[in-house]
Amino acid sequence: MPTKGRVTMPKTAPLSPRPAPAADLMASLGDLLRQWLPRQRWFAGKDRPVSELGLLSMTELFPGCLHLLVHTGHGGVPAPGGGAPAGDCYQLLLVVRKHLLPRLGRALIGRAEQGPLAGLTVYDALHDPRSAQLLLERLRHPGTAGPLRFERAPSVPVPSGLPPRLLEAEQSNTSLVYGDEFILKLFRRIQPGVNPDLEVPVALAAQGCRRVPAPVAWFRTTHPQEATLGVLQPYLRDASDGWALALQALASGDDFTVQAHELGRAMAEVHLALAAAFPGTGHEDNGSTAAAMTERLDSAAHSVPALRPFVPGLRSAFGALATCDSGPPAQRVHGDLHLGQVLRAGREWFVIDFEGEPTRPLADRCTAQSPVRDIAGMLRSFDYAARQRRPWRPEWARRCREAFCGGYAALAGWDPRKKHGLLRAYETDRAVYEVLYEARHRPDWLPVPMAAIERLAVRGD
Ligand SMILES: Nc1ncnc2c1ncn2[C@@H]1O[C@H](COP(=O)(O)OP(=O)(O)O)[C@@H](O)[C@H]1O
Ligand SMILES: O=P(O)(O)O[C@H]1O[C@H](CO)[C@@H](O[C@H]2O[C@H](CO)[C@@H](O)[C@H](O)[C@H]2O)[C@H](O)[C@H]1O
């Protein structure tokens, strides 16, 4: 595998002279994917059997590498928490080879037994350095491949031959780092429309906001519907994420309030830039927000029985929101802010991953919302961090909350600490989301948000 110099697109013959018809291809891949998908961190339907699997689009990206969009269904069983459809679309990149490659052991999906790929071995292409390099080549050269469109910001040069490595982070998507210079995030669960993780950073870059790495290339599909598939952006090579830094500080007994204060300030800066980039929104109606939060709580309690005893107490937080003053104006927000979404490089904080909460419909995530949603997300994250160690360190979380809100207030012109009712409702809504998220993805972590649920329902603080 070349690690420097030019990488050229291979000119060998395509995998098959004519692309296999969809039904045939699924005869080869169906059983393999049905077993492999639920084992992937990014697969959202782990809690229900994959009863339907269909091919939405197939493009031979380069010889031996297939780009697929597949639909997975669960026999009409809705996702926990409702709202989300009973089925999802996922993006897969597969390498199909004759021989088993020991160095790609972890990427193995299986050996096809029937259909057009019978006897061939199928891998996740993102673990394959050769395929990862060819993908970067595609992104360097704008153009099309079937329904796929590769586009880029012309002003930023992307050198060829940067060695790829797959990021080993706990992720909702899959990311590849190229030569410690760029990071490519491939969205796994695909929803129609422009992904806010492309739309927002592009808009913020146009505002001159330097707290968010600006996209340099991206790709999308036009079939079966328009959707963003991946975004390449500069890699902050010496950065540590806020979660790792917070855990380090907790382990060594170090103060984290200076960092939390600066983080609050940085977040206020991002909110101001977001308001400028997406102008023209009014105030949210607290009554309808409270109704939506109550609905989410009810459907979450339907899926996660442990929530049920706390529903009356949690509902009171949403009831109180309906009578709160209107708070800061609604605007575009981050939507899933937590310590893992902020990176500290040098002495500066950067904010990443503007996708919003992955279980919400894309249209919802792009609407104007109260900035209190983001603040509540970060405050919940201090609590998550403080609960990673025994004995639990509530004082540590409380000091970080104070410092973060203080830093935010210094720049934003309003103080989250003076919006107790709003904050309580948004923290409750966030904790309910976290209960659902953990129940679906990391059941061992469920006690963390459940502890907050108990506190918010019983004591209300
Ligand atoms: N521009 C960047 N520079 C350095 N690391 C990054 C950058 N963007 C993302 N990362 C790393 O990749 C991880 C996953 O990125 P993220 O956008 O949060 O993906 P996901 O939505 O799949 O969780 C982050 O936690 C961070 O460690
Ligand atoms: O993958 P994303 O970063 O988009 O976010 C999802 O996964 C997060 C966990 O990786 C989850 O965050 C929760 O756990 C964090 C610790 O791992 C904690 O800092 C957050 O406060 C807590 O919400 C996030 O909710 C989910 O959307």
Automatic annotation (TrEMBL):
Region annotation (Disordered) ranges: 1-20
Enzyme class: transferase
EC number: 2.7.1.175
GO biological process: glycogen biosynthetic process
GO molecular function: ATP binding; hydrolase activity, acting on glycosyl bonds; kinase activity
Keyword Kinase belongs to the record: yes
Gene3D superfamilies the UniProt entry points to: 3.90.1200.10
Pathway(s) annotated for this protein in UniProt: Glycan biosynthesis; glycogen biosynthesis
Keywords for the protein's UniProt record, in alphabetical order: ATP-binding, Carbohydrate metabolism, Glycogen biosynthesis, Glycogen metabolism, Glycosidase, Hydrolase, Kinase, Nucleotide-binding, Transferase
Tagged with keyword Signal: no
Maltokinase N-terminal cap domain span: 36-128
The reaction(s) this protein catalyses: D-maltose + ATP = alpha-maltose 1-phosphate + ADP + H(+)
Family indicated by similarity: Belongs to the aminoglycoside phosphotransferase family.
Oligomer status and interactors: Monomer.
UniProt-recorded name of the protein: Maltokinase
